[in-house]
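Give me the 3D structure for GMP synthase [glutamine-hydrolyzing].
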Amino acid sequence: SWTMPNYIEEAVQKIREQVGAEEVILGLSGGVDSSVAAALIHRAIGNQLTCVFVDHGLLRLNEAEHVMQTFAANLGVKVIHVDASAEFLHHLQGISDPEQKRKIIGREFVEVFQREAKKLPQAKWLAQGTIYPDVIESAGSKTKKAHTIKSHHNVGGLPESLHLKLLEPLRELFKDEVRELGVALGLPPEMVYRHPFPGPGLGVRILGEVRREHADLLRRADHIFIEELRNTKDTDGKSWYDKTSQAFAVFLPVKSVGVMGDGRTYEYVVALRAVVTSDFMTAHWAELPYELLGRVSNRIINEVRGINRVVYDVSGKPPATIEWE
Ligand code: XMP
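Predicted structure for GMP synthase [glutamine-hydrolyzing] (325 residues):
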């Protein structure tokens, strides 16, 4: 009968047969799919795998440290941590159009990854966390011309000019199976049951031009929101993080007036977004308890100097999208 340990054993054998003694590189994003692929391939071939983690400066608070801790320190995976934030922010200077921002981030990502890959000429394989729904989706888009509302950028889809063979050990799995596999391989459940995070990261959650100071404010506000969602349970015992499909803060480059002590403040606004959805094609805004929203708002305004107003987004998809850009 089917069991997870048997499945892992078979998958490991298959990877070993495919790869032999050759080396593999993998773009690790910290998302569920690339993380589980990394853990599985590492189980199979150990140090023949090198992961490249590109920090574009638009990640969540402490994300790079978490990824390095989980993979390099705890699992002993070889991970090259590339801090490319200065380069990304430089190329984003003066750019406020959402599609242009996505294109620049996608293009820079490929460039940085390629540069790192060239430093590993012995690598013959490019591993990707492609899962079954991605396989179906890309098969579909070859026949129908997909109507693109937003150009999506992922860590996947790296150029063929790398001349590497593709290793995609999750190609037959659905998301739930990928998560189960991740836990069985020893990844922390919080990592495996995370909300999705877009490839362009905070780049599409800082409206208009992306600036480092704004990214820093947003990261801290977002962290408070996520922390409170994780720590607050509904009457059924589930956390509000687990009851929502995706939740995050958005930075609005708009200043409004407030008061603090005897002083007048004139600072930025943060919007909170939390949605419930089964497929991300349509979504409802999450009916979070007022008490929770109040606590998040107080904490953000008290702890993040530079933000003096917090609003909650009550728009469904459609007509709004989940992200603000
Ligand atoms: P929207 O905003 O289109 O988002 O309702 C639907 C889902 O897609 C994610 N998203 C992206 N993911 N690159 C990604 O990898 C992108 O450019 C991108 N834009 C949106 C969004 O976070 C949500 O889960």
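Residues 98-118 form the longest helix (21 residues). Let me know if you want a second pass.
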